[in-house]
Amino acid sequence: xxxxxxxxxxxxxxxxxxxxxxxxxxxxxxxxxRYIGVPVLLHSAATTYPAVGRxxxxxxxxxxxxxxxPGVRGAILARITFTGCHFDGDAECDEQCATWGFEQVFHWxxxxxxxxxxxxxxxxxxxxxxxxxxxxxxxxxxxxVPA
Length: 147
Hints:
By secondary structure, this protein is an alpha+beta fold. The protein has five helices and six strands; from the N terminus they run βαββααβαββα.
């Protein structure tokens, strides 16, 4: 199973309950078709997004992410599925794009978010990457999936 790293507080905006959960991931490159409909692991980066990201989340959700969400860094937080990809402004853009989408980038659609009961520490990487075997085993145990 592959993983993708997303910086905080955007990783929490996907995983944590919210009136407006984040179901768009913004990237400068299109989602490779082989990852559409395939579960991947959501990893929170060791670094956080600049303060402007936290302010944007506060404006969208009414939550102060630093106070309301765990902010765990450097760990697998959930299993997600990407269901499609389009460019900003395309006909596929909807309320999620208006709320969470950045301009002039690709919007990757997210569905089927399953948060792990406990974060699994892991070192991330750029693009899609394969977690270490021990990390995968720990995640699979929490999800109740055979190793």
